[in-house]
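With this grant's support, the team has encoded backbone shapes as discrete tokens. A representative record is reproduced below.
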Amino acid sequence: MTLHRSWDTPAWEAPPLAPAVGPFARREFLRVMWEHRRGPGDELVFAESPEGLVPLVARDGLVGFVGEADLTDYHSPLGSDPRPALAEAVAGIGGTWVLDSIPAEVVDAVVEGLEGGGANVEVADDTVTAVVPLPDTFDDYLASIGKKQRHELRRKRRRYLEEVGEMLHEAHHDAGWAFVEFVRLHRLASGPKGSFMTVEMEALFRSLVVLEGWRIDLLRVPGTERAAAAIFGYADADGYFLYNSAYDPGLAAASPGWVLLGSMIERAIREGRPRFDFLKGDEEYKFRLGAEERRLCKVRARR
């Protein structure tokens, strides 16, 4: 087992231990998080063994995963067995460990690794993610969410067509016009959402959007260079992962956010994605659209 700080180790090519965690355990995403969000005194610690890799950050005796919880929806070690790397890491680094956002199905392996290094470990529920299992057709999906929600989606789409015009759903994979519109719409929001998109956060999103798998889906207002709503997300063979979204509050009566969500789910089914992941948060609308809870855990350890 080795402790190192190299982003170039071949161990990054190993799959995440937890299934269907999108980009969040991968080098490309975590490197962007590190470059844009590291704090004074943060130190990388990559714990690596032949069986796995655990990307960590340490500061003032506190150890956690790379990628802060508010921006990293899943955390998972890479490889088939993180226990040897975790055991030697906790024995070598010591301190207080707080490992968040761990899918419940792999938390036992994390706990066993830490305990193997002599740590006292506590496990608690963290938050949940909201995941929609996708059927083969959009008609099957609409049938699965029930008559009331099916009617609501169709009603909102009809109203959008009446008030805004043709539904022009576009997908963009760069930091051009669509990215500028996403940022603009974000800053139109009221409250904490409107203040979220600082210059620093815009730079982080700009670094993400050009990576493989990331994209911006939006509804273009017909005949204009304006978007009615935009969604920033990631897609791979495991599914579509909705990372952030915004809409024009001036068009709120036409429900552009809801209309784009319905179109996104329809497109994900057409693309053959097995799931649509709303990521963290238990907002009611996600479950009205067919989501199921996926439990995440937080592990605290001290040696």
User: Anything to note?
Assistant: The radius of gyration is 21 Å.
